[in-house]
Amino acid sequence: MPDIDMDFCQARRQEILDYVIQKYGRVNVAQIITFGKLQAKGVIRDVARVLDMPYSQADAMAKLIPDELGINLTDSYAKEPKIAELCATNPLAKRTWDYALALEGLNRNAGTHAAGVVISNEPLWKKTPLFKPTGQDTIATQYNGKYVEDVDLIKFDFLGLKTLTVIEEALQLIEKRHGKRINFIEEDINDPEVYEYISSGDTLGLFQIESAGMQDLAKKLKPNGFEDIIAMLALYRPGPMESGMLDDFVERKHGRAEITYAFAELEPILKPTYGVIVYQEQVMQIVQTIGGFSLGGADLVRRAMGKKIKEEMDRLKEEFAIGAGKKGFDMQVARELFDLIVKFAGYGFNKSHSAAYAMITFYTSFLKYYYPTEFMAAILTLEKNNTDKVVKYVDELKRLNITLRPPNINRSDLVFQADEIDGEKIVFFGMGALKGAGDVAINSIIATRNEGGEFKDMNDFVSRIDASKVNKRVIETLAKAGAFDDFGHSRCALISQVEVITESAGKAMLAKKQAIGSLFGDSEEMITVTVDIKPMPEYDLLDILAIEKESLGFYVSGHPLDKYREQLDAINYTLSSEIEDLADGSQALFIGKIENIVEKISKKGNKFGIANIMDLHGNIELMLFENRLKELDEDFDLSKPIAFKVKITKDGDFTRMNILKIESLKDAKKEKVKVKKEEKFIPEEILPTLSLAINLMPDSKVIEELFCLAQKYPGKHPLELHIKSKLSDVIIESKMKVSQSILNEAKELGVYKEERLAING
Question: Where would I find the DNA polymerase III alpha subunit finger domain in this sequence (predicted)?
Answer without folding.
Answer: 163-327
